Amino acid sequence: MNGDVWVRDMHGLRQEIIMDVDYSTFQYEYEQNTSRNLQFTVQKTDYNAFSFDLLTTEAFIIYKGQEYVVKSCTHGMTGYIRTKEIVAHHIGFTCIDFVQRDVITGVKVYTIQDMLAHGFKDNHGGFTYKIHGTFAKQKIENLGGMTLMDYLQKAVDAFGAYILADNKTWHIYSEEEFFEPSDYVLRYLYNTDSVKVEEHTDNLKTVVKAFGKPKETTKEVLTDNDYYAVGVYKSREIERYGEREALAVSDERFTNQNELLKWAATQIIDSPEISLEMTYYGTETLNERSKIWFIHEELGYNLWVKVTRFNESHPLTQKPPELGFMSRPRDMLGIQQKLQRSVQESQKKIE
């Protein structure tokens, strides 16, 4: 059965299907590039004594072909009934337990392939990776002396990658390769009956310096004159939010300043980000990589949205999944404009 939940002891010697799971407590929780967990409660019965005893910290949970490691096991009693509350993290995230001690000193330019190859070489955890899509080269200082999880986070932060593990194989995607457009449509009051829109400015930046292709040189420290193209991009949103400077960005593809600055404009988020939260009642199968068309006639939304949070109950409960979406402002322009108009209309009424 697709919803079967198995437990294996931490040494891999014994494995058993878990009976009498309280499926009302069962949750699969995914947060883009951040976490992927299972949690559930089990009561000890005459039918599951063996599997119940196997449920300890560092035991493995197998669900839908993926392995998770128990990181929290809370013992409880209700009357004469023993219970265990389990929280398990996807096995991919246990790469945080492995450190690449070799350090390459100095500031160097890396491809994402070279950066990850350095991190994953000679790891004893059996972790591998696959890269999907193309990425611009980036400057990194003193690469090494950090965990494999730090390397993956650097792929996200420095290269703009999206990461998702298939057991111990990490897949690293460009944005174009990660999201899978579907034929499904999210329509308010058709397959979702609640929508929450949040606007925030945590990542807002209005200024960024960009470097293009470096010239041939033996210098360790490069100045602006050592590049074919250098420029500072300033967004028009400075008038509204002031100068908020991002870390410098670089891409060796550019030798022309105008083209470099056009690219630099796409590397910052210069207006509030918009997120959506909703419950999905449709019958189509959605997943962590879904890109879905969203329609809300009353609020005027008609655009693509991309999954960033995916919380799913056990199939036996037949509960709808809870979905979260957030995209850069260029993807959510319709929502942003609608919010701005609403604010302006409210201000006029007050005046």
Keywords:
Phage tail protein beta-alpha-beta fold; 3-stranded mixed sheet; Elongation Factor Tu (Ef-tu), domain 3; 4 domains; 23 strands; Prophage_tail_N; Tail_dom; 13-stranded mixed sheet; 351 residues; alpha+beta
Describe this structure in words.
The protein is of the alpha+beta class and 351 residues long. The chain folds into 4 domains: 5-94, Beta Barrel (Elongation Factor Tu (Ef-tu), domain 3); 98-177, Phage tail protein beta-alpha-beta fold, CATH 3.55.50; 181-201 and 272-350; 207-265, no CATH class. Helix content is 18%, strand content 41%. It has 7 helices and 23 strands. It has helices at residues 49-54, 112-120, 148-159, 175-178, 238-241, 257-265, 333-350, and strands spanning 5-8, 15-17, 21-31, 35-43, 60-63, 66-78, 81-90, 99-100, 104-110, 128-132, 138-143, 146-147, 162-166, 169-173, 180-187, 195-200, 207-211, 230-234, 249-250, 273-279, 290-296, 301-313, 322-327. The strands form 5 sheets. Strands 1, 2, 3, 4, 5, 6, 7, 15, 16, 20, 21, 22 and 23 form a 13-stranded mixed beta sheet that branches. The chain has a 3-stranded mixed beta sheet with strand order 10-14-13. Strands 18-17-19 form a 3-stranded mixed beta sheet, with helices on one face. β13 (162-166) and β14 (169-173) form a beta hairpin. It is globular and about 75 Å long. The termini are far apart. Residues 329-340 have low confidence and may be disordered. InterPro entries: Prophage_tail_N, Tail_dom.
